[in-house]
Amino acid sequence: MVELDDKIGSRFEWMSRGELAEWQSEALAKTVLQAAKSPWYSAVFRKMGIDPASIKSPEDIVKLPFTTKEDLRLSYPTGMLTIDPEDLIRLHTSSGTTGTPTAILHSRADIDCWAELMARCLAMTGANSKDVFQNMSGYGMFTGGLGLHYGAERLGMMVIPAGPGNTARQIKLIRDFHGTCIHATPSYAMHVAERMIQEGDDPKSLGIKRAFLGAEPYTEEMRLKLQELYGFKVFNSYGLSEMNGPGVAFECPEQNGMHVWEDAFLVEIVNPETLEPVAEGEVGELVMTTLRREAMPIIRYRTRDLTCILPGECPCGRVHRRLARMTGRSDDMLIVRGVNVFPSQIEEVIMRHKWIGGNYVIHLTKAEALDQMTVRVELAKGEFDGSIETVRNLRAQLHKELREQVGFNVNIEVLEPGSLPASEGKAKRVIDEREY
Ligand code: AMP
Ligand code: ZN
Known about the structure:
The chain has helices at about 10-15, 15-35, 40-50, 70-75, 110-125, 145-155, 165-175, 185-200, 220-230, 345-350, 390-405, and strands at about 90-95, 105, 130-135, 160, 180-185, 210-215, 235-240, 245-250, 260, 265-270, 285-290, 300-305, 320-325, 330, 335, 340, 355-365, 370-380, 410-415, 430.
């Protein structure tokens, strides 16, 4: 149990590197022994001739196999369970962005630890019990709802569990109850702002101070645009259901990389092809091992998310290392005319223009065996002077900048504000209609 006076795990938050290393060795050894109680890992260890008791420190991690999403599917529903099912208190699933969802089972201690980590993230941004927090994330199986909810309650914030959608009601609730913090996907936060502007309202008038945005990749340019529209500070929030959900890594007031809570997660960055560790500061696939999970420990989980560890120490004084903004997922990469393109490269260019709204779609088709990329954007309400000349210039400008960015010609379609489908959760940015 967490002690009352340390409900956010401050003793972990402010550990030195030495203390953290000691804790990690102990926690990893325990985790592997615990995992060996599950049918899945006991079979894997037996097959590979691994003695779970031989794992004593983070350096030993390389002796253990990776766990993939496919492994989670194969072991569904309870193959990785290590405790009596009667001691479970919660089930969550991943959102199934890619294929069938996977199930994660939690004990009371697991839910307690998750709430602690989440509360720690929120407190780190400067939020406290006086804040009024509107959670615009989906409740239910998706971890963004209950994950943030338990963390915010633990911190003593007043929580408005609004869930996603119903934009008019979101705005009313924030106004009526003086919401100071929100949690949403960046695409939904953008949609709310644009709806307000279209209706002649000003997002700044809501008086929100902090926005915790994550669950999908977004660029620094998108953050800047949102901060300008609302006048709040955006804190990047990273997590995935397999590692609880949100609360894995979060930005501190420096807003420069996300501290990943290394008391709870052992972090590796590997080359996704060779699975060898990358050099410090190099981008690779994030791999994580749970260090404080009871019911369902997961070892060396391949997240598919691409990031790097930021070198150097954070001026805030926390030694938990910082993950750079995700550049995307390894399975998100588009290959267009043989060129590797990440949707984030397109977003970076779009967000620089105040004439253009925050919603966009990348449409891929084929014409005479040649890949075609069309980028659809919307004009920003209030910034547009209504002239065809402006639209023409804007298209030409975007065309030029995108060609410089990706190295081939991209078709641009500039649409009226509100023409593209709005997202309430994770935005679907890419439509790939090429036939292979
Ligand atoms: P889920 O399976 O619903 O838990 O979604 C987890 C996935 O969402 C992660 O593996 C990432 O691909 C993505 N994700 C979550 N937070 C962020 C973030 N802050 N930046 C980029 N991608 C994110
Ligand atoms: Zn920091």
